[in-house]
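#onboarding

Welcome to the new folks! Below is a worked example of what a typical request in this channel looks like: someone posts a single protein sequence, and someone else replies with the predicted structure as tokens. Don't worry about understanding the tokens yet, we'll cover that in week two.

Example request:
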Amino acid sequence: MSFDTIPTFSLFDINNRDEDTIGNLKLALMSHGFFTITDHGIPDEVLEKSYKLSKDFFSLSETVKNNYAHPEKAGARGYTPYGKETAVGEITADLKEFWHHGPSVDDSFDTRILENIQVSEVEDFNNQFDALFNELNTLGMKVLSSIAVILGKHSSFFDSWAMKGNSILRLIHYPPVQDKSNILRARAHEDINLITLLVGAEESGLEVQNPEGEWIPIAAKSKSIVCNIGDMMQLVTRSQLKSTSHRVVDHNAVTSVSRYSMPFFLHPSPEIELCSIVDDSDESISAHDFLEERLRAIKLY
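Example response:
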């Protein structure tokens, strides 16, 4: 199936299992795996303050930010400097720096899920991103519930997988493009996880590839949330749900400005076995091993 736009659905209609909404959502997930969520219920003030504190952090000096870099943890928590992450199969690094924030862990979480790193230079940084993480995790579980229904499962099917999963909130800063010969801020890639929730960027640039190889732009709407299927979900559904290539491009390189976004990568807990949930295939890999392989592939190890 070809597409030239990304469909938009109200969370109210998704939660109420509106017949047309669920049917069209199923079509989107099985054809290209991208859609936009409106009426998601995350307060404007949470999103606005999160953007502000993200910008405040990335405005700190390189020396201060690098104190929060932990390459020995594959960047699972804290700061990853500009020019580190490289898309699978690429030799040129992405033009971004980012921060990783996870759940507030306790003894009920898998011990391989790391604690968050406290930032002292930006007031209320950790509290704010704890709040945003929890909002996005709640939203993500509602989306997973609808996906379970689409797949003919009980609505709670994914709860044990992801309620206390190894999920990541990533704060991204794409600095102004300096080299006009390279306008690819993030090169074409697919996401690793079950689903991704992208808090709308204030600057356009996100593009999704359709089956004909054309790149479809997604308009920047800071109050909407774009959702897409990741490779883990594609794996366990034997490609019934599609993980699609996407990229971030700066088409205004002559007057380039910084771009900020906040994707939430919803992961299962490390011990979950990623095996088919749609047929009797016995192929399996743990969520932990799958993630480790992919982190090496994108040069975070």
